[in-house]
Every structure is written in C-alpha cells, then in structure tokens.
Amino acid sequence: MRYISTRGSAPALDFADAMLTGLARDGGLYVPESWPRFSADEIAALAGLDYAEVAYRVTRPFIGAALDAGTYRAMVEQTYRVFTHGAVAPLVELAPNHWLMELFHGPTLAFKDYAMQLLGNLFNHILGARGRRVTIIGATSGDTGSAAIEACRGREAIDIFILFPHGRVSDVQRRQMTTVDDSNVHAIAIDGTFDDCQALLKDMFNDPNFRDEVAMSGVNSINWARILGQIVYYFVAAAALGCWERKIAFAVPTGNFGNIYAGYAAREMGLPISHLVLATNANDILSNLLATGTMTQGPVHASLSPSMDIQVASNFERYLFDLLDRDGAAVAQAMTAFQDGELALSQDALGAARDVFAGFRMDDAGTLEEIGRRYEASGQLLDPHSAIGVAAGAAKRGDGTVPMVSLATAHPAKFPDAVEQATGIRPPLPAHMADLMERTERFDVLANDLAAVQGFVRDRLAEKEVA
Fold first, then answer.
1. b or e along 285-315 (b: 16 or more beta carbons within 10 Å of the residue's beta carbon)?
2. Which residues on neighbouring strands pair with residue 444, listed in sequence order?
3. Is the confidence at residue 467, as pLDDT, over 80?
4. What is the DSSP letter of 122?
C-alpha cells in the first residue's frame, strides 16, 4: 500500500513514512493510492467479533509491509484494552431503526481516542524500531488535544505541543490538556480561533527548515493514521446491524471533516452506506456547500459545541481529491482559491457530493432543545455535539427501513454547563477524572504569531536537551 499527496507533487510513501511525515511536502494530505475492497461476505464475517479483531481486519490492508501481521495484531489488541466498555463502541437504540453509537468510552471521553490510542502505539513502535525522536505539534478545537496528549504522554521518543484556542474550549477539555504533568507535554493557548491554530500548524509544516530542525510530525487528522483508526467503527456498526448487503446511514457531527471522511472511506471500501449526514452547528460552511455548491470562508462563531467551531475543514481536501478525479493540480488550484475566500464546485461535482452527503445545520437554541427533548423522552444525556448528530439523523433518515446510526462523539460530562442548562442535570465525570477540576494546570498563552510559537517550541526542546 502506497500513499500519495492530494496535491500531486510530493513523493509516494509507505504507511510508516506517511504517518511520520503527516502533511505532505507539497502542502497536500496523504491518501491511499487505491482503496482496499471488502466483499459482503467479508463484512458479514465481522459480526460477533470483538472490536479489536474488527479493527485489525479492517485496517490491516492499509499497513502493508510497514509492520508484520503478528506485531500489528498485538498492537491493536493492546490499544483497545484501555477502553471502559466491553463493546468499546456500543450501540443504543433511540427509536425504531435509529441508533446512537457511543464513541466516548476511551481515556479522554471522546471519539478521538479510538484513533489516537492506536496512533500513539504506532508512533512508539516505529520510532523505537528506527531509533528516532519526533516533535509532534497539533492543533485542537477541544478533543484532539487531550486525546493526543493521553496517547503520547511519557513516551521517550516524543515531545508533544498542542495549540488550542484560548477561552474557546470547555473547562473540562482545557483541563484534560493542561493538568498533565509529564515533561514531554506542552499545552499552548493561542489568542485566536481553532482556524488560527490550524493555520499556524500548517505554516510550521510548510516551513521546511523548522520542520527538519525539530523533526516535526503531527497527530491531527491531517495524519492518515488518524483517519484509519476512525474507519473501524463504521464497519463495527454495519456488522452489528446486519448491513453487509442492505444499506445503512450515518449522521456525523462535523467540524474538520475527518470523522465523516472516515465514513466516506468505509463506503469506498465496500460498506453499503446509503448516505452520510454532515451535521454542523452555526459554523455551517460545509452544510452550506452542499446547499449552494460554494464554500465561502466567514468568521468563526463561538457555540455550545466548540469542537465544531471551524470554518476551514482540512480533511475536505481529501474528499475533494476524489471529487476532482484525483487531479492533484486541480486540487491545489481549488485550495488556493479557497485561501483567497471561496471554493466553487461544478454542477457535476456538486451532484456527486450530494449523492453521498446530506447537509444539516442546528444552532445553539436547537441544540439545547434537542438535549432536553432526548433526556425527557428516554433519560439519555447527550453532549451538544452528539445532540446535533442525533437531530441530524432523525431529520435526514430518508427510507425508514435503512438503519440510521448517529455518532455520539463526546461524553456529556465534557460539556456539563450546556447539559445542565438543557436538562437541570449536571453530568458527573467518571471516577478516573473525578478530581479533574482540582488538579493544577500548566500551560502557556501565546499570540497568534508563527515566530512566537516556533520560538517557544525551540526553547522548550533546548531546555530539555540541557536538562
């Protein structure tokens, strides 16, 4: 299996090098050169298997010769032992043929754990085998940062720096990043939005001198291995619901387009997905694209679902690559146009996108109403992101005989203020995090300035060398 850049001019890499490289040298994102395909019989054979075994079978074709089968199987089994639910990603029926998939049973209570724990183990093994160190720099709208820190904390071969928008994540999300005291972990609050953090990250990747100087790599969903780990639960859901020949649909709370792109990847691999509902909050640039054919940058609006407060969805480039017939030059041209403010799809491309995706938008008032309604009807507490996904699944079901799976992307205790406002119930943190609000925080606040962030990284690495 080889990986190629969405912009067409970076060298093709194997899995290990694509993972360690993160963002391609031409500014593009790595994608598989071709999609492995699963037959209906192979999908049916996943039914009844434990999560780790499904993960191994689904992801193994992407690894190629980077790891031998036995080593990789053991790594996958180790990854999912730290999850707190026996099913790892259980399904709960909300209504006839409408299911909630709980993706918050990992160490940091968010769906990012399902890929990040695997990514941490992959990094650790491959770096150890090569005798290398890396500096991981990531940007987060809330959940990626804590999941990345948890996966990388204390690892000898990794220093990790996470940028998050100052004052724009929940208290729980912030503290999950800032109360980790391992010396290889650095949390940085940026005076700006998540899009600013993500732009800084891309600028650092696109500075070859800095990138090589600090041996930079990434854990954001620009890293293909992140997408890889998220493909798994789409197969798990389909196998559990008997959908290897009959259709299945998914509703996905969407910010950076990584989670829903993993669903698209599963569809390309043979999963019979009828459609994917792209659920957004008031930052509706993606749902608006499906409505109008135009993606236009606007201001980021703070919301009750901060992990979706994004205007520049990095992973859309991966889907655009397929939409434009894998023409790297056309993708580069389109992304340049978007940087200038607007990206427009042709009518044919828009029609193709609408064949796969349905758009949905919900503002804060609707989100609170949905949380309250679901709690009143069933006692089910939903975080704001998951509530948008559930509402989207209910609104865009289409054929009622097709199972709809809404993804619950975070534990309600990560956003207790919104949940309490909607229901009067303040969800408690699980036992292993019960003292989170009493732990000492450790983080730095920096301006939205590339030189300042690069200088901070250099200084912290230099301090570690002296120590």
1. bbbbbbeebebeeeebeebbbbbbbbbbbbb
2. 188
3. no
4. H
pLDDT per residue as tens digits for the range 153-183: 999 899 999 999 999 999 999 999 999 999 9
Which residue in 112, 202, 396, 414 is the catalytic one? 112
Query: Which residues sit opposite 252 in a β-bridge?
Result: 278
Dist CA 200 CA 123 (whole Å):
23
The first and second tokens of residue 354, run together, are 């609408």
All domains in the chain, ordered by first residue? 86-108+224-423 (3.40.50.1100)
Q: DSSP class of residue 110?
A: B
CA distance 272 to 258: 20
**247 catalytically annotated:** no
Tokens 């209504």 correspond to 95
Is the predicted pLDDT of residue 143 greater than 90, yes or no?
Answer: no
The pTM for the full model equals 0.95
Which are the contacts of 309, defined by CB distance < 8 A and separation ≥ 6?
A: 141, 168, 193, 194, 255, 281, 283, 300, 301, 302, 303
Residues 6+ apart with CB under 8 A from 439: 175, 179
**Structure-token pair, residue 421:** 């406002």
Show Cβ contacts of residue 364 under 8 Å, excluding neighbours closer than 6 positions.
281, 282, 303, 304, 305, 384
Which one-letter DSSP state was computed for residue 166? T
